[in-house]
Amino acid sequence: xxxxxxxxxxxxxxxxxxxxxxxxxxxxxxxxxxxxxxxxxxxxxxxxxxxxxxxxxxxxxxxxxxxxxxxxxxxxxxxxxxxxxxxxxxxxxxxxxxxxxxxxxxxxxxxxxxxxxxxxxxxxxxxxxxxxxxxx
Length: 136
Description:
This protein starts with 12 loop residues before the first helix and ends in an 8-residue tail after the last helix. It has a domain at 65-128. By secondary structure, it is mainly α. 49% of the residues lie in helices and 0% in strands. The chain has helices spanning 13-19, 31-41, 60-63, 67-85, 89-105, 120-128.
């Protein structure tokens, strides 16, 4: 298992101590992946319990924000995760393939009510400029 989803995550305090809590730069989406990768790097096992039952209303909080908000944070946080955790050829592969996938989806479009880009171009500029946390 590569990561544990944050909607149903139990972590011992002793496991968190060496890895730290959630990285606040993520704010929305992806913080669970980052924490899982940091726990795994610290030697903490991730355990899946198939008998556990969780009710999670997917998209309830994000639906109020709208699609530009969701795509902005999803993309920016993927870039942050790659910058933090990928090494060598993993980064080369991601940065070579990722723009092609997004371009194929037609997501690199300017927002119709703003001069800002909400596509990958704008998100990439945001991460390379070091701007993380809640988008203002």
